[in-house]
Fold this sequence. Notes:
Elements: H1 7-30, H2 38-46, E1 47-60, E2 63-74, H3 84-98, E3 102-111
Parallel strand pairs: 2-3
Antiparallel strand pairs: 1-2
Amino acid sequence: MRILLSESQIHSVIQKSINDTITNMKKYCETEDENIDSNVCDLLDTLNKIDVVSTSKIKTTTGTFIGVLVNIYYETIFSYIDYEDFLYDLGRAIKKKYGLRLVFEVNDEINQKERNW
C-alpha cells in the first residue's frame, strides 16, 4: 500500500525525523557511546538547529531519494564550520531508523554567535 503525502506533510515528516535524530545523537554523546564519532559530538555542541527549506524528489539509477535543502543555525567563535560530513551521518541515521533516503544540500549556514571583540 502506498501512502501519498502532500508537500507540507513531507516537509513536516522530514523536519521531525531530523529533530528526533539529532536529539538521539545528543543523548548518545552524553552517555559517551563508542558507536558515535567524537567529531559528531563536537559539531552537535555548536548546532542550534537545522531547518528544512524545501524538498524535491530525486530519481537515479539506484533508486529514488528525497533532496532536502536546509539552513543550519549554529553558534561558535569560528567564522565557519563544515557540516557536510555531519549531514551525511545524519542522513545515514535517518535511513536506518525511518527508511527515508535523504540527500542534504546546504542552503545557508548561519552563525548566531555575537562576536563582540
